[in-house]
Amino acid sequence: MTARPTVVPHVTTWSGEKPVRLRELTVRPDGKGLGYRHEQPGDRDAHGVLWVRLGGEPGTGRPTYRVMHSERQRRTMLDLRCQICAGPASRTAQGWLFLVAHTEQQIAEAGGTEDMLTMQPPLCLPCADTAVRQCPRLTEQYTAVRSRKPVLYGAWGSLYRPDPHGRLAELGDGTVLPYSDPAVRWLLAAQLVRELRRTTVIPLPTELPPTPPTPVLRQPAAAPGIPVPRRPAGRA
Fold first, then answer.
1. pLDDT tens-digit profile of 40-60?
2. Structural domain boundaries of the chain?
């Protein structure tokens, strides 16, 4: 049985954080990719890929657990920090810790963990323990993987191309492209993707502390570990 969440992961999107209107999207002046009509610093990553904008602040509204905030996900992946508390992720001689929402058998049937692509940032050990007890995606089945070389691969998002009239048409939502693919210039990125190399499957329970510490709840301004909002009194 899944335990009631006690914290909101740092990477979780809140209902008050809304994406920019698509009418802000346009073709770059040089015609070689996607752009915003009024681009701002930080709209593109170091590879020149355009990223979705989200307004609002963490803690506004209610958490949408199934959706990761594009900027916070990107930063934790870039810095290899824990996706729940935003602290340093667990790293040993076998590498950084990642959790995969599949069984070892399912992973083996799909080709194993080596070169696996993931959009899920790593975790620290205390937060990994919280995740496997409270995250619906992980409570029934998961595999703990350490990667000594989790390399930046590319991005996941919505792919666009201009039609014959110059209007942007969405070709596909949920597209993963490597940074080496020229088509990535037409991607509105929402998640950073890493490729897990030099991997080892580990038995997570053997690495956990005997008594996991209670997660520290921080204020929204600090971003990580925001307490789960309670329902107003008198409502079911």
1. 888 999 999 999 988 778 888
2. 7-209
